[in-house]
Design a protein that fits this description.
Strand content: 15-25%
Shape: globular
Order of helices and strands: EHEEHEHH
CATH class: Alpha Beta
Structural class: alpha+beta
Number of domains: 1
Largest sheet: 4 strands, antiparallel
CATH architecture: 2-Layer Sandwich
Oligomer: single chain
Helix content: 40-55%
Length: 96
């Protein structure tokens, strides 16, 4: 299932670790603090566990949204919806 990860993390070090974890999980950056990729339930649960270990619950915000392909296809992207240079070809094809 497609999975969005979005975050607002004030500390550079933590933010970099979160981004690296997302990339290692096989999801792709679509904007600086937004990742998207295809994860099964076990992969998503593992990612959530690892995110919790890295973040400061009192300061950081991380959102993990699973989304089926049917709902994704209903999304409307306006303007410069994503940075084409940051994302993989696999995700680009979902947007085009």
């Amino acid at each position: 299932m497609l999975t969005w990860v979005m975050y607002d993390i004030p500390k550079d070090r933590t933010r970099n670790k979160i981004a690296k974890l997302c990339e290692e999980s096989g999801i792709y950056r679509v904007q600086y603090s937004i990742f998207l990729g295809d994860l099964n339930n076990a992969q998503r649960k593992e990612l959530i566990t690892n995110l919790k270990d890295l973040m400061n619950i009192d300061e950081d915000s991380v959102y993990v949204f699973p989304m089926c392909s049917e709902d994704f296809n209903k999304c409307k992207l306006l303007g410069q919806a994503f940075n084409k240079e940051l994302i993989a070809d696999e995700i680009k094809t979902l947007f085009l």
